[in-house]
Design a protein that fits this description.
- This protein has 2 domains: 2-100, Single Sheet (Histone H3 K4-specific methyltransferase SET7/9 N-terminal domain), CATH 2.20.110; 115-168, no CATH class.
- It is built from no helices and 13 strands.
- The protein has strands spanning 2-3, 18-24, 27-35, 39-45, 48-56, 62-68, 71-79, 89-94, 97-100, 115-122, 131-137, 143-149, 162-168.
- The protein is elongated.
- The chain starts with a strand and ends with a strand.
Length: 169
Amino acid sequence: MQLSAQDCKVKSKALEGSYEGDCQKGVANGKGSAKGTDSYTGDFKSGLPHGQGKYEWANGDWYQGEWEKGIRSGYGTMHYADKPSYDTLYGFWKKDKYVGKFPAPYIIHSRTNVIRDVNIDQDKASAQKEIVIYVESITGGASRDTGRFGIKTQNHQHRNPQRFICAAV
C-alpha cells in the first residue's frame, strides 16, 4: 500500500518531511523515497533505511549500498561532494564505519603462542589459484587443513570461491 508522509512515518529525523512508497501499520516499510534535510530512496524496514538504497546528505555527500536499521552495513559506495572522485570509498561498512574493500581479510578460529612463523603464498601454477598458508610451529608436528572462501564482488551477485590450504610444519 502506498501512502504519503502524513499517513506513513519515517523514523529518521533527517528524512522526516515527504515520503512516497510502501507503508505498513503507519510506518515506511518496503520500497520508498523520503526527503527531509537529507533524502533517501530505497528499501525501508520499520521506518528506517534497511536493504539497498541511496542516501544523500544536505552537503552533497552520498552513499549507495546496503543499510541495516538506518545505518550503513554491508557493501556500498561513499562519495564526498568536496573531494575528487578518486577519494570515493568502495567497500564494506559495519555499524556505519568503513571496514575496507573486503568484509574481513581473515577469520581467527583459535590463537596460540607456539607459532614461530607464518608464510602466505599464491600457487601461480595452480589452475584454481590456490593460496597456501604455511605455519611453522615451535613444537613441531604437522597438520593440514583445506577449505573454501568467497570474495564478495562489487555487484555481490555471486561469490568467487577459491581454495586455500593451511599446513603446519
